[in-house]
Write a structure and sequence with these properties.
GO terms for molecular function: DNA binding; zinc ion binding. This protein is α+β, with helices and mostly antiparallel strands and about 300 residues long. It has three domains: about 90 residues, DNA Primase, Chain A; about 70 residues, no CATH class; about 100 residues, Dna Topoisomerase Vi A Subunit, Chain: A, domain 2 (3-Layer(aba) Sandwich). It is built from eleven helices and 17 strands. A five-stranded antiparallel sheet has the order 1-2-3-4-5, covered by helices on one side. Helix 7 crosses helix 11.
């Protein structure tokens, strides 16, 4: 599929659902969301008009079609990778019966059946199993400078389906039974979307945006794992869900992204009643912890080559 076909055939609301993002409320053809492309907000200001299949973010005065939105949600992906992602979600116009996993009140998944009228039903998790050595997903983690031994306690290999196509990704579970899913070309979420809290019984908590940053921090600062809990937002839009957990700790260390959205959240937390400290200075000059971690490995490799080592 090309970009024009994607924009005409893929519903923005279905694309958002496939990323684990649901509307806060609906009014006719206008569906309102907490903005998925900015820092967390209390009042939904991101509107999708389902009749026009267009989105508009009132907070920044920007809008567009589904492909424009996908580029903003997957900022590290190439245009080709975004086309692959969206093409996998576009379905024929015929109604299709599919199974989706929905959490029960006890967070134990149960199956229910829905009918998708010519739209992507989102992500269906088919199977979960331990990560395997020398697998494509292990190679992907290695590209992000994450050893398998570091990832295994927190991640799984998740096989999932978007429409009729099956894929595999590194899965990072949240507290509600959903998953953050990553591979070399895909970045998405299996609903329900929620935060992830790693409780080591500590009085200090480290706050991060994504699980690649969390795993990178374990590599860079292994002593933290022995004396800290960790809270991974999985999206800045979920900050409000984290405040109760953060408030139960004596100290909150911030390891947020060095972009506009991350800085705004950090400033908000530093002004709050929480006992927060910005701990991001060591990766100054990099967007996030993982980018710094990967760059450091690259520099070390270049140094070894320069000294004549392999």
């Amino acid at each position: 599929m090309n970009i024009q076909q994607i924009n005409s055939e893929l519903s923005i609301t279905d694309f958002l659902a496939s990323q684990g993002i649901q509307p806060a409320h609906r009014k006719g053809s206008d569906w309102w969301y907490i903005s998925p492309v900015r820092a967390a907000e209390r009042t939904p200001s991101f509107k999708v008009n389902t009749r026009l299949n267009r989105w508009y973010d009132h907070g920044v005065g920007e809008g567009g079609k589904v492909f424009d939105l996908a580029l903003r949600l997957h900022r590290t992906a190439t245009i080709r990778e975004v086309i692959q992602l969206l093409s996998a979600q576009a379905l024929p116009s015929a109604a299709t019966s599919v199974k989706v996993i929905q959490p029960s009140k006890s967070t134990v998944p149960r199956e229910s059946t829905i009918v998708a009228q010519g739209r992507s039903p989102g992500i269906e998790v088919l199977e979960k199993r331990p990560l395997e050595d020398a697998s494509p997903l292990a190679c992907y983690l290695q590209q992000r400078n994450i050893p398998l031994k570091t990832a295994k306690p927190y991640c799984q290999e998740v096989r999932f389906r978007i429409g009729t196509r099956q894929h595999e990704a590194v899965g990072f579970a949240n507290r509600s039974g959903g998953y953050e899913l990553r591979n070399s070309w895909f970045k998405g979420s299996a609903a329900p979307k929620d935060i992830t809290f790693v409780n080591n019984g500590a009085k200090r908590v480290c706050l991060l945006e994504g699980f690649m940053d969390f795993l990178s921090l374990l590599e860079l600062r292994p002593q933290l794992a022995l004396r800290s809990n960790f809270l991974v937002l999985n999206s800045l839009a979920l900050l409000s869900k984290s405040l109760d957990v953060l408030g139960r700790h004596r100290e909150v260390l911030l390891f947020l992204d060095h972009d506009q959205a991350g800085r705004k959240v950090a400033e908000r937390l530093l002004r709050s009643d929480l006992r927060c400290a910005d701990a991001s200075s060591f990766y100054q000059g990099s967007k996030d912890v993982n980018e710094f971690h990967v760059a450091r490995k690259r520099q070390a490799k270049q140094l070894r080559v320069g000294l004549g080592y392999r």
